[in-house]
């Protein structure tokens, strides 16, 4: 399996390129509009055929490059079930598995950051957690129909029940981390260790974080696959 972690320095966002090296079939997860040229160039250099652009959720902190990537590669754009994104080519449901070549990508509903969030388990070993679980943290739950209780349930009952060796690749990192494991996050993630569900809800309700700087433009743009005049 070819697996690449790509970073956008302006929004601290990770995108992921996954491909079957035998067939060249590939998927790009959580693309960033400003990085479309970089990502398409990499796909072309590696001789890959991009089949899918996947989104873990409707982002509030950056604009997706999915629409532009679809224009340039002919891929399909897939978003989580119940996401309000009419321009997507399809919706992916909890438990559904898509393939790039022989590599399975399984959707795992991880609601809480938004009301239509998915994690993706790639090849049974690499977990793309989006904004549900960060390395030593987690995404916020105070907008876009966020629900701290739902996030606690998703992380503790769905993600933390995966094998401890499962590699954790988050949607963002603000401390310089690139990868962790489920076992490591179960032991050291301060958002969850030592907190029950109610304590987690109360903690998340008192974070008092400022809004993401791109929230006013990012959400409506992402509901149009990033294809808006101001989003260039």
Question: Could you please describe the fold and organization of this structure?
Answer:
It is globular, with a radius of gyration of 17 Å. It has a six-stranded mixed beta sheet, covered by helices on one side. The chain has a six-stranded mixed beta sheet with strand order 7-8-9-10-11-12. Helix 3 (148-159) crosses helix 5. By secondary structure, the chain is α/β, with parallel strands linked by helices. The mean pLDDT is 94. It is built from six helices and twelve strands. The chain has helices at residues 36-45, 66-73, 148-159, 182-188, 197-205, 215-222; strands at 2-8, 13-19, 25-29, 49-54, 76-80, 90-92, 97-100, 103-109, 118-122, 126-130, 167-170, 180-181.
């Amino acid at each position: 399996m070819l697996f690449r972690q790509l970073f956008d320095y302006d929004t601290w966002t990770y995108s992921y390129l996954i491909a079957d090296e035998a067939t060249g079939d590939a998927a790009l997860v959580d693309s960033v509009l400003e990085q479309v040229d970089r990502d398409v160039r990499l796909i072309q250099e590696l001789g890959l055929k991009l089949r899918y652009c996947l989104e873990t959720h409707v982002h509030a902190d950056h604009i997706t490059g999915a629409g532009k990537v679809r224009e340039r590669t002919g891929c399909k754009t897939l978003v989580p079930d119940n996401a309000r994104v009419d321009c997507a080519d399809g919706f992916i449901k909890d438990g559904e598995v898509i393939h790039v070549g022989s590599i399975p990508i399984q959707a795992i509903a991880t609601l809480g950051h938004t009301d239509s969030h998915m994690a993706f388990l790639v090849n049974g070993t690499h977990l793309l957690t989006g904004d549900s679980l960060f390395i030593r943290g987690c995404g916020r739950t105070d907008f876009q129909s966020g629900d701290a209780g739902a996030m606690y349930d998703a992380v503790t009952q769905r993600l933390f029940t995966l094998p401890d060796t499962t590699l954790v690749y988050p949607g963002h990192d603000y401390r310089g981390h690139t990868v962790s494991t489920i076992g490591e996050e179960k032991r050291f993630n301060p958002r969850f260790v030592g907190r029950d569900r109610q304590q987690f809800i109360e903690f998340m309700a008192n974070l008092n974080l400022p809004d993401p700087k791109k929230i006013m433009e990012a959400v409506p743009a992402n509901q149009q696959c990033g294809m808006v005049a101001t989003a260039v």
